[in-house]
Structures are given as structure tokens and as C-alpha cells.
Amino acid sequence: SIPAGVRRGAFIVFEGVDRCGKSTQSKRLVDHLNSHGVDAELWRFPDRQTAIGKMINSYLTSQSEIDDAGVHLLFSANRWEKRDAMLRKLQAGTTLVVDRYSHSGVAFTAAKKVPGLDLDWCKAPEFGLPAPDLVFFLQLSVEAAAARGGYGEERYEKEAFQEEVLRQFLSLRDPTWQVIDASASIEDIESKVQTHATEAISHAAAAQVHAIGG
Ligand code: ADP
Ligand code: MG
Question: Three-class SS of residue 200?
Fold first, then answer.
């Protein structure tokens, strides 16, 4: 059971196109928070360790083919299967810093432009998941992202597709977003992130965890 009077943790998400710096910044933020005595953990989606995550990994690495609607629901289910654990952590006072979440799920499928899988369809399975308190959107052109060593071999790592993903992301922007210029230096971004994260952690303590769409 959760001790009375524990301040809940903040739910902080990093989003953006491949190579914009999400993994770099999420790790640095958790290290910073931990070194200042803040209980914080780094999570990522997809979580490739679960049974569902293994199916997603096999799809992303082109070892299997899955219908677009089906794989969209697997990505969402991969978040749903972590819902209780996320809520328990937040309520126990742990801040979760999450590398990709719901916005990636919606943006990647919407970017495929499959008839029938419009934006509303893409958002629907996300309704009811824990909603982030703060989303860092690391904004970077696909050209600049590609210059950071080029894209890898995974299914979505193609420039034209990433352009469409970026357009979809920007259509999802909401008041929880902090859009950050990801072409700045790692240290400059890190310091902005720390400021906003600290504020979110103090606000979260007094607020309920919201649900997406609720
Ligand atoms: P993502 O997780 O969004 O795909 P990464 O954090 O893995 O991105 O960063 C991709 C590459 O870009 C890595 O080689 C990383 O060291 C580099 N990188 C990250 N942030 C910056 C930055 N602000 N400026 C220049 N290079 C960066
Ligand atoms: Mg990454």
C-alpha cells in the first residue's frame, strides 16, 4: 500500500523524430534528478522485453509482417500492459521519464496514410492511458536528424517517412508540450529540460494523474 502523504511523481515524456536526442536527454534528466535526490526512473516505449514488445521488435526489424492496424494496436497494448505499473510508480512518488509514448504511437501510424486509419482512429486506443504531465518535443528537421550519422536499418528509418511523422507530431501539439529546439547543444537543451522538469515535478505533487482523452 502507498503511504499517506506521499507526493506523487511527475510523468514526463520525450518525443520527436528519430535522432532528435530523446534518449540522450531522457537519460541525462534521470541522472540529474537522481543525483539531486529525486526518485526518478527512465522508461521507454516500445518496451521490447514483454511478449507484445517482442512482436513489435520483430516487426520493426522486418523479421515479421503485421497488418498496419494490428501493429498500431500492439504498440498501444504495449503501453496498456504497463499502465498499472506506471500508476503505482507515480502514486508512490517516483517520477517517470519516458522515452517515446502515445504521441509516437499516433504519429507513426497516421503518417502511413492508410485508408480508414485516420487520426481519430489512431488516437482511440490511447484513451484512458495515463496522460503525461509534461511532454518535451525535441524539434529538429529531418535533414538535421539524418546528418547525425544517418538512419539505421529499422522499418521506419527513412527520410521521407520521418518528414510525414514530423508533420503528424506537430498536429498533436497540446498545452502539456514544451517544444525545444533540438538543434541546440546537448548542454543547452539539458538545462532547459531541467528547469521545466523541476517545475512539473513540483506541480504534479498536488495534482491527480489524468487520463488521455479524459
Ligand atoms: P533519439 O533517441 O531521439 O533517436 P539520440 O539521443 O539517440 O536520439 O541521439 C542521436 C544522435 O545524435 C546520437 O549520436 C547523439 O549523441 C547525437 N545528439 C543528441 N543530441 C544532440 C545535440 N543536441 N546536438 C548534436 N548531436 C546530438
Ligand atoms: Mg532513442
Answer: helix
70 vs 67: CA distance, rounded Å:
5
Choose which residue among 24, 135, 151, 169 to substitute to test ligand 1 binding: the one with the highest number of ligand atoms within 8 A of its C-beta: 24
Domain ranges of the chain: 11-204
Distance 34 CA to ligand 2 centre (A): 20
**DSSP structure class, residue 158:** -
Q: Is the ipTM of this complex over 0.90?
A: yes
**8 A C-beta contact, residue 192 and residue 180:** yes
Q: What is the CATH number of domain 11-204?
A: 3.40.50.300
Taking only the tens of pLDDT, the chain with its 214 residues reads 445 567 999 999 999 999 999 999 999 999 999 999 999 999 999 999 999 999 999 999 999 999 999 999 999 999 999 999 999 999 999 999 999 999 999 999 999 999 999 999 999 999 999 999 999 999 999 999 999 987 788 888 889 999 999 999 999 999 999 999 999 999 999 999 999 999 999 999 888 999 999 8
